[in-house]
Amino acid sequence: MSTQPGLVATDLRSSRVGPVTLHVRPGECLAITGPSGSGKSLLLRLLADLDPHTGRVTLDDTDAQSIPGHVWRERVAYFPAEPGWWSEQACDHVADTGAARTLLGSVGLSERMLSSKIHTLSTGERQRLALVRGLLHKPKVLLLDEPTSALDPDSTALVEQMLAGLKRDGTIFILVSHNAAQTRRFADRHFTLRDGRLEEGDAP
Amino acid sequence: MTPALITPVDLLIAAAVILACAVISRVLALNAGRAIVIAALRMTVQLLLIGNVLLFVFGQTSILLTFAVLVVILCAATFEAGNRQTTRMARRWHFSIAGFSILCGAALATSTGFFTSLCPHPLFAARATIPMAGLIIGNVMNATSLTLNSLLSSVTRERGAIEARISLGATRLKALEDPILKALRTALIPTLNQMSAAGLVTLPGIMTGQLLAGMSPVSASRYQIVLMSLVIFGNLAGATIAATLTTLHLTDHRGRLRLDRLRP
Fold this sequence. Notes:
The complex is a heterodimer of chains A (about 200) and B (about 260).
Chain A lengths: L6 E7 L6 E5 L4 E5 L6 H8 L6 E6 L2 E2 L5 H7 E4 L17 H10 L16 H13 L5 E5 L7 H16 L3 E5 L3 H7 L2 E6 L2 E5 L3
Parallel strand pairs in A: 3-8, 3-9, 6-7, 7-8
Antiparallel strand pairs in A: 1-2, 1-4, 4-5, 9-10
Chain B lengths: L7 H20 L5 H26 L4 H21 L9 H22 L11 H32 L1 H9 L4 H4 L1 H21 L7 H8 L4 H33 L15
């Protein structure tokens, strides 16, 4: 049985961020705000073990360093503000097209999108497709960097509704967003990253 | 048939042709005149030097001397392959990777050649070993250089795509699969073109030399077939080793992309 369920970071630091200590419980969302360049994205990358760092990160008591990096990142998925694409065909990015169709519908995208070329999609469509692509791996932790920055209010509401369902099922969220209304709606606790350190505060 | 002798007059004609190329380059504003003259001067000095060095080495029976010449060729190939890179690694790792890959690829191909009719008599005789190993080293150098160039530029240009795969749980080899395959294909293109055109469009250099030296065309063809097979084998081995080492160096034990290991 887990003694400390959820995502725990202890004394996490790199050259630009830290030391950071935090604990996010299953089904909880932690919002991080701060000025541009303060290291919010870098902190998410450190939690996903995408950049070298010191300190300890565990998920349900499993230390990140005790399992291979790629296995950790399947569980703790980072969604950057500008997603990268390794193939021009949208369908090449989803391993399970059946599951992808269901998820696409829940974020307001047509399943016809899978036969499209990436460069023909709008920024907002690409943002939602990247979210669907990552969710197919069923991560336990979602590290979201400005997940709806290119979406209109209706599409944003659909995405939040879908993410809220995952939250109810126990998925952990860390949300970096400049959208104060969104962090108020979705997050349970609010932090500001200042001089590389997290400071807990009230909702913006 | 006796080999054609090149007289000083012939060399002067060659120099005139080079100068004509430089003049044409200037007239057409290609800005390549200086490069043509420098390359021609470099080639002349290098070939005259190696001609005289080989004259001395061929007169000896020392295996150590043969290996010393091969080491010099290998060092020069390493420098050329490393120096051609536009995207470079910190601490000159591109030179180390190029050198090791050329050494392994050329050693594999040359030693395979020694198990066939290309085996010199006596073993490691300088007259046969140096030209054959030199030709293979030169080809593996090109393949290794192309591999490094393609892989290093792809990894820099496609960082977002590679990191997207890593973020979604791909291993480092899976994440870099596309740039690696592209680099290997790029490395083999010149040799494949050469093999496809051999006999139809061009006669390969060694075969031409043997024909001019009086060897039977059929024997020269057979020799060339074995040699080209060894060349593509060495190229593929060198390119694969270079791609693997580069991938391992630009990622770490946690499977993270480490572009901080490139020179800024």
